[in-house]
């Protein structure tokens, strides 16, 4: 039997949903090659298998587990103090391939990573390099960031000063009067962002890539406002909540309709400017002006502009707004006659079930798409409809617990192989298409649980179907062990991994 066939068996067994824990633990043997790491990263695992991976002597296995997007992040806590800095860094960097939604790490894990004094015993990374991975991973929830100013560890309070503009006045005052001198110094150093004269003095130290941050978030002097217009930095200025009234008035009459649209929903827009923009020649500007009554706070403004203009195939990361508007505001958006507001409501996962049912039938396709991608109560039929009509959302939809795995057999003759593969896995399908010209469809068909163990024996000997057959939950457990025995008796152990 060829080595290629053995590799297919091992990979199929690693992702067999019916494989018991002892099978999965056997697959962590170094003699199985890359099978163990692929499994530890790519599927949910029983507790006993997680425990075995956490203490596995091979760092490659622990690194793979650190990037697992299916295991409860709390179970990965021991990896935050792993002897290997590479393992810690992989935990900090989060799941590979940047899924749209990333589960946050627990607070205790975040504290461990952010306050570590070293980068691990192997000395290949520094603690700051690991923190850099964490900062860009989307695994730090807003609730944790908002709590930094009140944390016991002074290093975390120093980190709170980095978001000075997002702190409450009480938090700023407390940090400026902190008992730790390093925290007080950091607070004084960071408070410049709300002082227009200090902002102007600091600007020359920023490069071109960083200037949009200054123009978009800091309090600006009159000279910097003029520089924004002179340098064409009007987009960040239009979003800047500290922009003075005279600058907002100029932006409301800017020749670019996109800038006028940003201004049209500002909470601080003067009534005379709103009246002027309601008659704007551009459709989008007039639409945004109609939304202005729903933009009474900056949280509401930010939420609107997370959605407006993104289109039905938007695959932006799904993150929580900071801060979040009230549930009543989202409910009012759901009842609005404006499709843009209903799209906003459909993007909030806390929307009540009765409103979810209404939006699932909405006339606006983008409302339905956003509901399918964002809300845990979106009906399975809607998830399937979006999967069929909008290929851009398929990778995300397949990760959702409510996505239907049955009732798809009507797609078996569809010209799109992704849809045929979905149908080929449906247990209700009477005759899985094992001869389909597409590899993914054949694999799904071979993994269909409606197949008998006897049928699987033939499929296990065919390179085109062996992996799917090994992943089939109908495969008897003794046969799983026998397949591993054959592989381990013939596979040469790989070279030691670094």
Rg, Å, rounded: 27 Å
- What global shape is seen? globular
Give the helix level as a range of percent: 40-55%
Distance between the termini: 30 Å
Which structural class fits the helix and strand makeup?
A: mainly alpha
Average pLDDT value?
Answer: 95
Which band does the percent of strand residues land in? under 5%
Total of helices? 32
Largest sheet: none
Number of strands: 0
Low-confidence blocks of residues: 492-498
Please write out the topology.
Layout: H1 3-14, H2 21-26, H3 35-42, H4 47-54, H5 59-66, H6 85-93, H7 107-114, H8 127-135, H9 142-147, H10 154-160, H11 169-176, H12 181-190, H13 196-202, H14 211-217, H15 222-231, H16 234-239, H17 245-252, H18 257-264, H19 271-277, H20 283-291, H21 298-307, H22 327-334, H23 339-346, H24 353-359, H25 365-374, H26 380-389, H27 394-397, H28 417-424, H29 439-446, H30 453-460, H31 466-470, H32 477-490
Summarize the model shown.
Helices cover 52% and strands 0% of the residues. With 498 residues, it is an all-alpha fold. It is globular and about 80 Å long.
Word description of this protein:
The protein has helices at 3-14, 21-26, 35-42, 47-54, 59-66, 85-93, 107-114, 127-135, 142-147, 154-160, 169-176, 181-190, 196-202, 211-217, 222-231, 234-239, 245-252, 257-264, 271-277, 283-291, 298-307, 327-334, 339-346, 353-359, 365-374, 380-389, 394-397, 417-424, 439-446, 453-460, 466-470, 477-490. It has 498 residues and is mostly helical. Helix 6 packs parallel to helix 8 and helix 23 (339-346) runs parallel beside helix 25. The protein is globular and about 80 Å long. It starts with a helix and ends in an 8-residue tail after the last helix. 38% of the residues are buried. Residues 492-498 have low confidence and may be disordered.
